[in-house]
Design a protein that fits this description.
seven-stranded mixed β-sheet; alpha+beta; 751 residues; single chain; five-stranded mixed β-sheet
């Protein structure tokens, strides 16, 4: 999911101050220390801390809580959906607090934009690989100020100066006398200490947790023993399961419902027809006492649909349309130099079209949401990625003040962008079903469940994109011009983010990664066609625009190197002389992969090749070298991937490695297999048997090398994806001489 780079920059730079959160209000009566960060410009108060009122309530963000038992609770404003956010945020707090890692626990923050906003977005939400980057200073400040207050309380208790005390693994120690006190013993007294206006954060050489240790992930124990709570685990008194029926074509309208057979299914309680908040007309859902009954009841509905306004194009027709658009000028994105003249004068011209398909997100946990609608408020339990927009959308739908839409953040079994839907589609649908059920006498909590088939066929997808490029080389093989024309749907047009991210008809997410091409070339021309009549819903997919621009640009630069008779690694390096961090990961990957040494040969009839790619996304730099084997029958095996990443200061090296490995596996599935196709407007794929993800036996050997850096930390959830496909297809070319310009690779090597 994309960083809103231009959005709320002044908010991100806002001065932060810390306030002491009421034990009574925040801890529900238990003694302890609770801290938060207060963003003065947003709340309109002075930036000094203030004591709790008689009612024990505070308005600030709460990020740190220390209980009387000595447990350090970190409140995470970002969802944990497998990317390691809970571990990273807890590490930042625990480092400055000098807490015992074994006593640290993480809770998901409720929906509250003022308290828990993402400083990169100006709203509460997780995405764009921003979780650690936007929280780095914020969470360390919270930990450091909590530490100072605990030390101040200990100094009073021991009748010594604060400067004579040290802190180690959750204990405040007076070394001269050997006396010490645990955090739990000090929690209540520390809560009454004034919050320091300023604290000095640790310098990197003093770190004991950040980048230094293999820490057990905060989410691993609960996910291992089954106590982790996902939406599917939620059970509330009287709750019913709702499974909606969606049309086979986008834009179809429901005109008739016969639920007689559905109501005969054991466990089915009712069917409810409701106005769809995000689709045309009404929809219908079946309510049942269990998920299986709800699915069987939904499938037993006799439904009539009006397809007169439905989208009915096939994938072949769309591609023909996109190809035609690619042949004529589009909206200007970048225009530097005179590309047309350079192409006319070129010694060599490379012309190539690159095509990538629609892709589903295919997270292991399909979409679901629990809605408990009351008279004056609603409680939502969800693997919540996009709190502010979902809260506002539900509030509007139910005619409630936003603060009465109370969202509890649970674990999510993956997302890859899907749960951060720009129009809050599945959350709104769950709320609409709950409202309709209540209006029809079912005033109970509703858990809406989408099946895998609903999720795969129900939209929103990574857009289908078509790229046409022409590159000019002079007699020495130097690039003199790069012209690239893209055709693809806009993700952000028509959403709340359009004003910030769509300028003069250009959706920034459509062209990121090519609009600001890093390779040095005198003339650069980038154009965009944005089809508006395509009725297939789209949204961000892991690495967003970079997922297709990275494939095209890193394939094209490889084509240029081959045309120039140059080594692909060195050719890239020479054209990145103004980008030392790009060069740094490129060098590291090439070195660790043994680029300068011959690749070991394969068995008889097996051709082997090595390819390289480098890309920057979300302010992180990643280079990958892939080694592949292709047998005589055209069967492809990706043997090895060597990855180098520069993501600034490495907070949790193990998490970074895991995210690079996961990104490589995710990207490899799309490179080898995954695609969504339409026939007469209907999505043809439905589940993992025909929308294939990576199988265990296809996972290559992976090495991840983290470049040392003193820069501020940046993201790792998405940047591992873009270089993988071009590294693999460039390796295929090195092995076979066949250039792959269309994904997925599928059977293209088999004749």
């Amino acid at each position: 999911m994309h960083v809103l780079k231009q959005h709320a920059q002044s908010r991100a730079a806002a001065a932060l101050s810390t306030v002491n959160v009421s034990r009574r209000g925040f801890m529900k009566g238990s003694a302890g220390l609770a801290l938060g960060l207060y963003i003065a410009p947003l709340l309109g108060r002075d930036s000094r801390a203030r004591a709790a009122g008689d009612n024990g309530e505070f308005a600030p963000n709460a990020f740190v809580r220390v209980t009387p038992e000595g447990e350090v609770v970190v409140i995470a404003k970002h969802i944990e959906m497998g990317q390691g956010t809970y571990t990273g945020l807890a590490t930042l707090v625990a480092e400055e607090l000098d807490a015992d890692w074994a006593s640290v626990r993480v809770e998901g923050a409720p929906a509250n934009t003022q308290r828990y906003q993402n400083l990169a977005f100006g709203i509460q939400g997780t995405g764009g690989s921003t979780s650690i980057a936007n929280s780095f200073e914020q969470m360390r400040q919270a930990g450091a100020k909590a530490r100072a207050m605990l030390v101040a309380a200990a100094a009073e208790r021991l009748d010594v100066s604060p400067g004579s005390l040290g802190v180690h693994r959750g204990r405040v120690i007076h070394e001269a006398s050997g006396r010490e006190l645990g955090f739990g013993e000090l929690a209540e007294a520390a809560a009454d200490q004034p919050v320091p206006d300023e604290v000095t954060l640790k310098s990197p050489e003093r770190f004991t947790l950040i980048g230094k240790q293999r820490l057990m992930r905060q989410d691993s124990p609960a996910k291992t023993d089954g106590s982790a709570r996902f939406t599917q685990d939620v059970q509330l008194d009287g709750m019913l399961i709702a499974v909606p029926a969606h049309p086979a074509r986008f834009g179809s309208r429901l005109t008739g419902v016969d639920d007689a057979e559905a109501l005969e299914v054991p466990g089915v309680v009712a069917s409810v027809r409701f106005p769809s908040p995000t689709r045309d007309g009404d929809l219908v859902a079946v309510l049942a006492t269990n998920t299986w009954a709800a699915i069987k009841g939904r499938d037993a509905l006799a439904l009539e649909w009006d397809d007169s306004q439905a989208f009915t194009m096939s994938s072949e027709a769309m591609e023909a349309d996109y190809r035609e658009r690619a042949g004529r000028p589009g909206d200007t994105v970048t225009d530097r130099g005179d590309a047309a003249a350079a192409l006319d004068e070129a010694a060599q011209v490379i012309e190539a079209d690159y095509v990538v398909p629609y892709l589903a997100h295919a997270a292991m946990e399909p979409l679901n949401c629990v809605v408990d609608l009351q008279d004056d408020h609603v409680n939502i339990l969800n693997g919540e990625q996009w709190q502010t927009l979902d809260q506002q959308a539900v509030a509007k739908l139910l005619d409630l003040p936003p603060e009465q839409v109370r969202i509890q953040q649970l674990f999510a079994g993956g997302s890859f962008g899907r749960r951060a839907n720009p129009i809050s589609d599945y959350v709104l649908e769950a709320a609409a079903i709950a409202k309709a059920a209540r209006d029809q006498g079912q005033a109970v909590p509703i858990k809406m469940v989408w099946t895998r088939e609903d999720d795969t066929r129900g939209g929103h997808y990574r857009p289908f994109n078509y790229h046409r490029a022409r590159l000019a080389l002079d007699a020495d093989g130097n690039l003199t011009a790069w012209h690239q024309r893209l055709v693809g749907q806009s993700i952000l047009t028509g959403t709340a983010m359009e004003s910030a991210m769509v300028k003069d008809g250009i959706d920034a997410t459509s062209v990121e990664g090519v609009a600001d091409l890093a390779y040095g070339v005198p003339s650069l021309s980038v154009e965009l066609h944005t089809p508006k009549e395509i009725g297939v819903p789209v949204q961000w997919w892991r690495s967003v625009g970079h997922t297709h621009t990275g494939f095209s640009t890193e394939s094209l630069i490889d084509e240029a190197a081959v045309a120039a008779g140059r080594d692909p690694y060195q050719y890239r390096r020479e054209r990145l002389d103004r980008h030392p961090r790009w060069q740094g990961v490129l060098d590291l990957a090439a070195e660790k992969a043994g680029w300068s040494t011959p690749l070991e040969g394969g068995a008889e009839g097996v051709k082997r090749g090595r390819g390289i790619a480098v890309h920057e996304s979300f302010a992180s730099y990643v280079a990958q070298v892939a080694e592949v084997s292709v047998d005589a029958d055209g069967r492809l095996k990706v043997d090895r991937v060597v990855c180098a990443v520069d993501c600034g200061l490495a907070i949790n090296p193990d998490v970074i490695r895991a995210q690079m490995e996961g990104g490589i596996g995710f990207a490899l599935a799309a490179a080898l297999h995954s695609e969504l196709t339409l026939d007469d407007g209907q999505v043809q794929q439905s589940n993992f048997h025909d929308f294939q993800v990576l199988r265990l036996n296809e996972m290559p050997e992976i090495e991840v090398h983290i470049a040392p850096s003193a820069e501020a930390p940046t993201g790792v959830g998405e940047p591992g994806v873009p270089p993988l496909a071009p590294a693999v297809t460039n390796a295929i070319f090195a092995a076979t001489g066949q250039r792959i310009r269309r994904l997925p690779i599928a059977n293209q090597l088999r004749g």
